[in-house]
Amino acid sequence: MGFRVLAIDHGDEKKDMCIKLGAEEFVDFGNEDVVKSVQKHTGGLGAHAVILLAVSEKPFQQATEYCRSRGTVVCVGLPARARISAEVFSTVVRMISIKGSYVGNRLDTQEAIDFFRRGLINAPFKMAKLSELTKIFDLMAQGAIAGRYVLDTSE
Which of 44, 49, 7 is nearest to 24 (CA)? Predict the structure, then answer.
């Protein structure tokens, strides 16, 4: 869609996946100050848009700090009992929009199907046996899964 993507996650496996999927830059929140790093990668201006898919609250609290003036923060992830907050003065003066997005409309669905038909969607996944489900849940709790798992229920 012409956007320049900067991915934020933690770990080398996730970095490799994000770069392979088209991100130009990667910020490792475990090793870097996210706000300063995003500012550095965007020439001090900040991101045009921030799409939050996080499973914890902290990224929701940081997003407006590295979003540029007239930028948009879109909340998609649903961390349990998390809140989003932003400094009112800075958000108003910089005219930042904060939105939630839960489901798309008919046009969004048609566009997604068209992207899939044209081979533009690459969703990394790993196959695992149903007997490995407990191990997968442990990896999820550790934040150690890059991509998704598909369970083979034929065992």
Answer: 7
Q: Give the residue from 123, 126, 121 showing the smallest Cα distance to 150.
A: 126
What are the structure tokens assigned to 87, written together?
């400094």
C-alpha pair distances (Å), 36 with each of 24, 131, 148: 17, 43, 29
Burial 39-51 (b: 16+ CB within 10 A, else e): bebbeeebbeebe
Task: Please give the full DSSP string across 9-66, using - where no structure is assigned.
Answer: ESSHHHHHHHHHTT-SEEEETTTS-HHHHHHHHTTTS-EEEEEE--SSSHHHHHGGGS
| Contact assessment for residue 84 and residue 100, using Cβ atoms and an 8 Å cutoff | no
Contacts of 23 (CB under 8 A, 6+ apart): 5, 6, 7
Q: What is the mean pLDDT of each run of 10 residues along the chain (155 residues)?
A: 88 92 94 96 96 92 96 94 93 97 86 89 80 84 75 70
Secondary structure of residue 138 in the 3-state scheme: helix
Q: What's the N-to-C CA distance of the chain in angstroms?
A: 41
Token pair, residue 64, equals 């407006």
